[in-house]
Design a protein that fits this description.
alpha+beta; Herpes Virus-1; 3-stranded antiparallel sheet; 19 helices; 48% helix; 8% strand
Length: 616
């Protein structure tokens, strides 16, 4: 074990993996993580009532209550102030168990000092010193502005005393404290307001700060809001929903942070990176992939390997055969081997008046490798873009599906709930398209040079063949379902059982593809972590999802039509075009706003996927 200094320097890494159990380190994602939601928290429910949620939705209104309970837990055990409890929890990323275990292991004095607070023993000693100093002098000088200060006085809350001491014992005038604190709050340092004394480094007491800011309500409100937001900003297990405009919710994971979550506002995102869901590609893969697309890395590599710049106009020139004399379209001749400008006189073996040495075989090998890499990149890119393009078109076709359900309802006396299979199939299609698109990103990196050190050539071909087999089977089923969903309502109604079977088959094939990744590919990657978000299945449907909203809109309109007819109305049946309450939400979900009886799409339970082992 290293020294205390090394331990605290490496705390960021240690605290991330702290408390990981055997279940957290690999195997199937059980979905049975502990983490009972506090009152007022929304949650994503498991597939059965016995399994707690994989993640919890925290509203802005309940954030302060949850934070106070976390602070109270630490205060009750350590018998410390709110400022001390907050500093400790902030330093340990709001992991109360880690706070207590580290204090037991490292000692209270060391942990308190590292967190920016004073241990209780030193607090008592400083209180005695302050009392002695106060008895010697009833007046002192502020060491910031050098103004004379009256002795500290008790404040009744109506006004601040002339001199203000902090918990560390350093005293400055109230005006200097106010200015120091106000600047810190405006600069975003509310949770790290330190004493002004040189080299002190102790956090300012929260109650004292609030007392000083009582006549600056705007700054005080910003300070208090920053303290509340600290539960999210300084917590590894909590992240703000990235919706725009912001819904105000936060998401807390109860297990592995490598998962894909859905806020109650309808926004789905990867909890680890905050981007759009991208499983089975890892966060690192998708970041490199996006960067590769944006900067044209493959194109630049191919140009570098297969072209030479003209020495006159600098435009790239490709040699597609012939001798080593190249003629640019600007009229300049140059040698292909060295790139120097030459005259036109030449034969097959030499250029008159020019000599550049022997031909280098590695140049041609580099050109061939560049061509292979570009072809491989384009293979995966075109399929990635094709599936994302299909997903966008299918999402735009949601309204067409709504019309089809309308038509089927008008010609059928069955219950509306019988048509949930349509929206379930649409949701499954959306999920499958997304998984397929990012499966090509996963394959590009895992079966490419980036992971070449992890596998032998034989293993790469074996893994690639197995993965592409499952991927290809999934693609076939997805295209069949997409084709069927585009048919008219008569054909769609007659194909009810086929649609249900295809949806179940697609879900099963996705699970099998993930099973190959987990059980065949990931165990062979020993040199690096492969943190892949688990596949939760079509049942993990968030509130506000497009598919559920389609059915909710139709249900509300059908109910209003029935009410309108029973009241003797002569307007006729409502449709999505003439219904004034038919709206589109910010997330693109189709909703129906009935002023009499509002309908809301309901969330369905999620199913467990898997998570990969974090390399320690």
């Amino acid at each position: 074990m290293g020294s205390d200094e090394e331990w605290f320097e490496d705390f960021e890494e240690d605290s991330y993996a702290y408390g990981a159990s055997d279940d957290d380190l690999g195997g199937m994602h059980s979905g049975d993580e502990t983490g009972t939601p506090l009152p007022g928290e929304g949650q994503s429910r498991g597939t059965s009532g016995s399994k707690p949620a994989l993640y919890t939705i925290i509203s802005k209104q309940n954030l302060e209550t949850i934070q106070k309970e976390a602070l109270a837990q630490v205060q009750a055990i350590l018998r410390c102030t709110t400022t001390t409890a907050r500093a400790l929890l902030t330093f340990f990323n709001w992991d109360a168990e880690n706070v207590l275990s580290t204090i037991a292991e490292r000692g209270e004095t060391e942990v308190y000092k590292r967190s920016g607070v004073i241990p209780r023993v030193e607090e008592e000693e400083e209180e005695e010193e302050e009392a002695a100093a106060e008895s010697l002098s009833q007046q002192s000088t502020c060491l910031v502005c050098f103004a004379d200060m009256a002795a500290p006085m008790e404040s009744d809350g109506a006004a601040t005393p002339t001199s203000v001491p902090m918990s560390c014992g350093h005293t400055f005038c109230a005006d200097c404290w106010k200015q120091h604190i106000s600047i810190g709050v405006r600069e975003g340092l509310s949770r790290r307001l330190l004493c002004m004394a040189h080299g002190c480094g102790v956090l300012c007491d929260e109650d004292q700060v609030k007392l000083l800011l009582h006549d600056a309500p705007d700054v005080l409100a910003k300070y208090e809001e920053a303290l509340i937001d600290g539960y999210v900003d300084d917590n590894r297990k909590v992240r703000w929903c990235p919706s725009v405009p912001h819904c105000g919710n936060a998401v807390r994971v109860n297990g592995d942070s490598h998962c894909e979550v859905a806020c109650t506002c309808g926004r789905q995102f990867c909890f680890s990176c905050g981007d759009q869901p991208h499983s089975p590609a890892t966060c690192e893969m998708i970041q490199q992939w996006v960067h590769r697309i944006q900067d044209g890395t493959e194109t630049a590599s191919w140009l570098h390997a297969n072209t030479k710049p003209c020495p006159k106009c600098t435009n790239p020139v490709e040699k597609n055969g012939g001798c080593n004399l190249v003629l640019c379209r600007c009229g300049q001749c140059f040698c292909w081997l060295c790139g120097q400008a030459t005259g036109r006189a030449h034969d097959w073996n030499s250029i008159q008046g020019h000599s550049c040495g022997a031909y280098k075989e590695e140049a041609e090998n580099r050109a061939n490798e560049g061509q292979r890499n570009l072809k491989r990149y384009l293979h995966y890119l075109t399929r990635y873009e094709a599936h994302l393009g299909s997903l966008k078109m299918e999402q735009r076709a949601r309204q067409d599906l709504e019309h089809k359900v309308d038509a089927m309802i008008e010609t059928d006396t069955a219950q509306l709930s019988n048509y949930s299979w349509v929206t379930d199939a649409l949701q499954q299609l959306f999920l499958a398209r997304r998984v397929l698109a990012y499966s090509y990103v996963f394959a590009f990196y895992v079966f490419g040079p980036e992971f070449s050190s992890e596998f032998s050539e034989v293993t790469v071909e074996s893994n690639k063949g197995l993965f592409e087999d499952k991927q290809g089977q999934l693609e076939v089923e997805v295209e069949r379902l997409a084709n069927l969903m585009e048919r008219n309502e008569d054909v769609l109604a007659e194909s009810r059982q086929a649609v249900i079977n295809m949806s179940a088959s697609i879900n099963s094939r996705i699970e099998k593809m993930y099973d190959v990744i987990e059980n065949e590919i990931a165990p062979q990657v020993a040199g690096r972590s492969m943190n892949i978000a688990p596949y939760k299945g079509q049942r993990a449907k968030p509130n506000g999802s497009a598919a559920a909203a389609v059915l909710a809109a139709v249900a509300a309109r059908a109910e209003l039509n029935q009410r309108h007819t029973s009241q003797g109305g002569d307007r006729g049946l409502l449709s999505s075009q003439d219904d004034p309450h038919h709206i589109m939400t910010g997330s693109g979900a189709v909703l129906y706003r009935d002023p009499v009886a509002p309908q809301a799409p309901s969330a369905k339970p999620s199913s467990p996927g898997f998570k990969r082992q974090r390399q320690q």
